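> example.struct
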């Protein structure tokens, strides 16, 4: 994906129209490919995530009605394309896990289990239903693309984007500080979503303060990816408990124990990184960024 950013020499509306139009076009481009593959759908859904991050970044320059309408619109497009997402993710995690196993017995068990999941995915996923959903999403995105070109936001100050990232930073920091001593899988997943929002928003603001934001973005990316790996392991753990046959429960229990150990390791590293990233108060974070506008 091409690098895109907020330009503070442009008006608020110019930035919003340019960036929303860009991501909307990119999603259309991915879905318009004749031979649709999982990677195209993944890239389109990534555009929707980045669009929702952009909208959060600019929400203080939009009416609540417009923000909610657009946020829900792109959320619904992502959901329309979320065919068998969890099983697909689990299959990818299994590929990596199989390569890392030393025991032939474990590798054979995991390979067999992955084959079962692939079979279930093929059985449950109707190509016709997917094609129909894809066409509907393309139609809605095309209409939205035409609408975007006629947007005329009343707000002009690009500095309003800083209020957006301050809000996201405060939400992610609050979730981090509210994590229990032994955080649940759900707590970590919710924190991960806020960290990803913050990561994507910081990327859009890189030009404001490159020397500070680029290293910080690397930390956010590392944290988001670690928490993403944790969530993938949770999905695999759930699948093992749900789909495993009784005669294979002992082998499954060994794998689940190893997954639990890796999850604990990830949690420990994530919490340490969180202490570094969220050491500063949201108000101080905002003032540091705002000072760059005056330089």
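> example.seq
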């Amino acid at each position: 994906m091409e690098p895109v950013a907020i330009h503070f020499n442009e008006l608020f509306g110019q930035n919003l129209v340019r960036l929303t139009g860009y991501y909307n076009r990119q999603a259309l481009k991915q879905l318009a490919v004749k031979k649709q593959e999982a990677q195209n759908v993944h890239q389109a859904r990534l555009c929707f995530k980045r669009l929702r991050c952009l909208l959060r970044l600019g929400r203080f320059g939009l009416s609540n009605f417009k923000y909610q309408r657009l946020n829900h619109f792109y959320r619904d497009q992502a959901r329309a394309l979320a065919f068998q997402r969890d099983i697909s993710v689990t299959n990818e995690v299994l590929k990596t896990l199989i390569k890392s196993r030393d025991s032939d017995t474990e590798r054979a068990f995991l390979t067999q289990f992955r084959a079962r999941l692939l079979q279930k995915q093929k059985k449950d996923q109707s190509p016709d239903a997917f094609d129909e959903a894809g066409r509907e999403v393309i139609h809605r995105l095309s209409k939205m693309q035409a609408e975007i070109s006629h947007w005329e936001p009343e707000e002009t100050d690009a500095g309003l984007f800083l209020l957006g990232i301050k809000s996201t930073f405060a939400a992610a920091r609050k979730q981090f500080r509210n994590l229990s001593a032994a955080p649940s899988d759900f707590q970590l997943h919710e924190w991960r979503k806020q960290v990803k929002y913050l990561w994507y928003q910081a990327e859009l603001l890189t030009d404001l303060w490159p020397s500070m934001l680029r290293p910080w973005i690397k930390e956010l990316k590392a944290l988001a990816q670690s928490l993403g790996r944790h969530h993938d392991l949770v999905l695999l753990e759930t699948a093992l408990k749900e789909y495993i046959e009784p005669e294979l429960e002992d082998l499954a229990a060994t794998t689940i124990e190893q997954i639990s150990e890796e999850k604990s390791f990830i949690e420990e590293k994530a919490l340490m990184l969180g202490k570094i990233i969220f050491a500063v108060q949201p108000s101080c974070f905002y003032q540091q960024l705002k000072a760059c506008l005056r330089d």
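> remarks
Residues 215 and 238 are 35 Å apart (CA to CA).
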